[in-house]
Amino acid sequence: MSLTTVQQVKHFGGTLTKYSHESSTTQCTMRFNLFLPRAVEQHAKVPLLYCLGGLTATEDNFPQKSGFGAKAAEHGIALVFPDTSPRNVGVAEAEDDNCVGYSAGFYLNATQAPWEKNWRMYDYIVKELPQLLENNFPIDPSRTSIMGHSMGGHGALTIFLKNQDRYKSVSAFAPITNLSRSPWGLHALSRYLGEDRSTWAEYDAVELLKHLAGEKKLRNDVNFLIDQGTGDEYLNPDHLHTYDLVETVKKLGLTSQFDIRFHDGYSHGYYTISTFINDHIEHHAKALGV
Amino acid sequence: MSLTTVQQVKHFGGTLTKYSHESSTTQCTMRFNLFLPRAVEQHAKVPLLYCLGGLTATEDNFPQKSGFGAKAAEHGIALVFPDTSPRNVGVAEAEDDNCVGYSAGFYLNATQAPWEKNWRMYDYIVKELPQLLENNFPIDPSRTSIMGHSMGGHGALTIFLKNQDRYKSVSAFAPITNLSRSPWGLHALSRYLGEDRSTWAEYDAVELLKHLAGEKKLRNDVNFLIDQGTGDEYLNPDHLHTYDLVETVKKLGLTSQFDIRFHDGYSHGYYTISTFINDHIEHHAKALGV
């Protein structure tokens, strides 16, 4: 698994580098951006925060627009910004749909044709990418956390819930919380996973939360930080189902573990993320011990 | 001169709004983004900082990627992000050239066909836009400053030098400092202004500086803050002529007024701007008295 450097710039005293590599998971060339803080000069290994992008995003949107740099540099945290789907794999159905295909991986492993060979972003984020980063960079695999935006917020929440021992902390901006009830999810999950909806729950944060709480398997030492603008066009009509998450959290008696912050008038996009990014980096820094 | 609201979002407690309007100067529909800080709720009028974009930019690049928000909100400064050229005016020559035409206004008033009717970004920034902002928003016209990036850095420096009493302060990221000697300038100025190079000097920061210093007309109470990455692809080969500016400043005995900071390895783009934007906002805040 060799890495090719596409571009490198300096940022807040560290480096932001775009890499490409041949992925055995998605069977195509994948790209990601990696921020390594100046702290790598002083420490053998630094903690790592995964940042998952939303629909229509590539590996560039989050690092370009989120304003992550100042606090990441201050705390000496590396951040990785993966792409959001396989690319250029010759699947015609992937071209013309904003919600299925390119930029719409939904951080799951597809089981249905024509998606099942390449659309395996869950395994890419949870298995291949961590191994690649650990093998090539001064990353401490025992200190990783995860966050994301919109579809990437769904990714961060579901990947965290399915791998609670792997991440120190989790947070999300305007996440899709109940994917199998969202119009996006109804459209995408039926194509990626098929019409048997029993398979959908494992990629649905609200359903995973209910299941884990019912089994008493939810870690009680982790706090979920979620920021949601009330001016978000996807909050009403209900694509994100944030209020359902709030209700579920209440019913499950988990309010002390969830900090779901509604911000008056804020939108779905990066102007909201950049306003509150420092709180998220601080949230993760505390859990990562830096 | 009526304004149409294209989009509005919240950002760091204030609002970022995209407006469009019919410009009498450029004879087309122009757009700009305006950040109004929360401070407008407490103050009758707030100071204003002009932020001029570079080649290929629109009114969106600087606000999306610069990270201006935190410090602007803290100091209660409004920022305006104009577009970089006229748009959709049916000039065929404007379509196929990255350095002349759309997104390449160079903040000058063109005198040659087919540009002279619409490519009047100097008058737009110095005359029409200030009047429009003053008429429609709680902006204090006696407290304005100007900064820019690359071609916009050229714009900020030249517009400041030609209107020293209008702005409290000036700064630039990776500015084109000596446009009439830059390949970009040779290409653009010959088209916009014609081959008579005596007309070029008024849109060339180094030439303006020499002239003003020679006439002893340079304000001595203003400091120029300029950030330049040494990894900037346009520094060598010499598109920006930053070292020439340094030499000129030395020869003119103006080193105490120029803070030209070279940053090891930093690139031409917004990852550099966002690293140092806070210093620029602080620089302007001090001059604006906030």
Automatic annotation (TrEMBL), chains A, B:
Q: Which organism is it from?
A: Lobosporangium transversale
Q: Which cell locations does it reside in? A: Cytoplasm
Q: Which reaction does it catalyse?
A: S-formylglutathione + H2O = formate + glutathione + H(+)
The entry's function note states: Serine hydrolase involved in the detoxification of formaldehyde.
Protein name per UniProt: S-formylglutathione hydrolase
Where is it predominantly found? cytoplasm
Q: Which family does it belong to?
A: Belongs to the esterase D family.
NCBIfam families registered for this protein in UniProt: fghA_ester_D
A molecular-function term among this protein's GO annotations: S-formylglutathione hydrolase activity
Q: Which UniProt keywords apply?
A: Cytoplasm, Hydrolase, Serine esterase
What are the GO BP annotations of this UniProt entry?
formaldehyde catabolic process
Q: What is its EC number?
A: 3.1.2.12
Tell me a GO cellular component: cytosol
What residues make up the catalytic site?
A: 150 (charge relay system), 232 (charge relay system), 268 (charge relay system)
Per its UniProt entry, which superkingdom is the organism in?
A: Eukaryota
